[in-house]
Amino acid sequence: MWxxxxxxxxHLGAVQSLKEKRAVLRPHxxxxxxxxxxxxxxxxxxxxxxxxxxxxxxxxxxxxHLDSILERLRRYLDSQIDIEMIDLSVTxxxxx
Length: 96
Known about the structure:
Elements: E1 2-11, H1 18-36, E2 39-44, E3 51-60, H2 63-79, E4 84-94
Antiparallel strand pairs: 1-3, 1-4, 2-3
């Protein structure tokens, strides 16, 4: 079994309040969960209107499957017009 922790830094250019930020992020978080059966949460930059940091936990039976899930998530984030992915970092955790 393979697992990884993913940290995604986002810029939300059109957002003017924390309420708008939540309204923009909520559908993306739900879509990411459904797209690849991953766990997603906002983990940092809670008080900044135009910044968001998402943490994702991904588990797969092998490294190839894990990489395909990560690529699917990356393609989704790159294709969105209301959010800009600034950074995506992955930490792999292999079962001993």
